[in-house]
Each structure stands twice: as structure tokens, then as C-alpha cells.
Amino acid sequence: MSESEMQAELERLRAENARLKGKEKGGLTLKVSEKGAVSVYGMGRFPVTLYKEQWLRLLAAAPEIEAFIRENEPHLKTKE
């Protein structure tokens, strides 16, 4: 690898590093998995992956889930 190629690679890596550092912490990103499911990144160490029907069913139940969380607030822990 020549000096100019190494310098170009170093600049590319610095730019990528700056871009990654600039991403909002705790932000969520969505991707389509290899099997055609929807993966949500940013919730924890691993993505949450469900198929379209499962996401739609979960989203339809959002009011019930929110009510359950409110009712059980004293018993629930938060991840910090």
C-alpha cells in the first residue's frame, strides 16, 4: 500500500468515525433483514426483529401496552 493510499484510507476512516460519533445516542434505525423482516436497532445489544404482520399486531396493541406499563409502573425497572 503506497503512502498516498494509506493517507486516503486514514481520511476515509476518520470521516467514518466522525459520522458514527455524530449519530444520536439512543436513536433507532430500521432495516429490512435478509429474510424480509423489519429489524429495529438501538434498543439494546441486539436488534428487535419481527415480520410485518407481527409489527402491525404489536403497533395495534400499543394503547394496551402503554396502559399496562402505567398500571404496573411501581413493579417495573428501567434500563439505564
Helix/strand-derived class? alpha+beta
Beta-strand residue fraction: 5-15%
- Secondary-structure element series: HEEEHH
The biggest sheet amounts to: 3 strands, antiparallel
Q: Helix fraction? A: 40-55%
Walk me through this protein's architecture.
- The longest helix has 20 residues, at 3-22.
- The protein has a three-stranded antiparallel sheet with strand order 1-2-3.
- The termini are far apart.
- The chain has 80 residues and is an alpha+beta fold.
- It has one domain (3-75).
- It has helices at residues 3-22, 52-60, 62-71; strands spanning 29-32, 38-41, 48-50.
What secondary-structure arrangement, pairings included, does this model have?
Elements: H1 3-22, E1 29-32, E2 38-41, E3 48-50, H2 52-60, H3 62-71
Antiparallel strand pairs: 1-2, 2-3
Give short descriptive properties of this protein.
elongated; alpha+beta; 3 helices; 80 residues
How would you briefly describe this protein structure?
The protein is an alpha+beta fold.
